[in-house]
Amino acid sequence: MSKHSVAKFIEKNYPEYWGISSYPAEECAVFCSTHEEWGIFSNMAASAIVVEGIEFKSSEHLFQMMKFNTPDIVKRVWNGITANEKRSGNIKMTAKSYEPANRRADWGAMIVDAIKFCMVQKYAQCPEFRNELERSRGLYIVEKQANPKKQADAWSAKLCGNEWVGPNLTGRLLMELRDNGTLTYTLPDDAFEFIAILKECNGN
User: Fold this and answer.
1) Angle at which helices 169-180 and 127-135 cross, to 10°
2) 82, 19 contact by CB (below 8 A)
3) Mean per-residue pLDDT over the chain, rounded
4) Of 15, 35, 48, nearest to 169 (Cα)?
5) How confident is the model over 21-43, as pLDDT tens digits?
6) 182 is a domain residue
7) Structure confidence at residue 114 (pLDDT)
8) 139: closest CA among 55, 41, 5?
């Protein structure tokens, strides 16, 4: 299991989302690439989200920034500077270069609540996202494991015969959001400390 796998966090802190599910392939709205049908469901899809006056390029951008609360690391990740001093336009890879040593100590205990928060903000601010969720009614939403060589151990699922099989946490949360119009989450009091840091950098 990769050092970046969040499976252990889900199993320990979010048992209600732990486990393997299967979905009939012909009844699924499957997404992976942002350029394909249902691509807006991806956290990487370009859909700007504004939180407390700070604009994030996507829900993934917001989610990755939530991992850090140390001023120097927040600034470096925000500016796309990796731990080995390279420039990167990929927020996920930039953030991963600082993990696990520099992320919040409580990240594992808040990870699902953090992604729920990001999805709720996207739902509120992105009409295309809301519309596509509505269009998917009657279908299971499944995130395809991007790397076929990797195990689908947390967020996604893999096609096995006529079924998509895996934890599919992203898909499960999207279906919950679609069916309920919101997601319930609880975040620590200092969850948005990184925004205060960004505001200070911007002179706000």
Assistant:
1) 90
2) no
3) 94
4) 15
5) 999 999 999 999 999 999 999 99
6) yes
7) 98
8) 41
The three-state DSSP-derived secondary structure of 46-58 is: CCCEEECCEEECC
Residue ranges of alpha helices (H) inside 87-191 are 91-96, 107-125, 127-135, 169-180
Q: Which stretch of 45-49, 143-147, 168-172 has the lowest confidence by average pLDDT? A: 143-147
Number of domains into which the chain is organized: 1
Residue 200 has pLDDT above 90, yes or no: no
CA distance 197 to 204: 10
In a domain, 17, yes or no: no
| CA gap 23, 140 in Å, rounded | 7
How far does Cα 162 stand from its chain's mean position? 27
**What's the chain's length in residues?**
204
pTM for the full predicted model: 0.94
CATH number (domain holding residue 29): 1.10.357.40
Q: Which amino acid is at 117?
A: F
Distance CA 170, CA 66 (A): 17
**In angstroms, how far is the first alpha carbon of the chain from the final one?**
42
Residue 86 burial (CB count, 10 A):
11
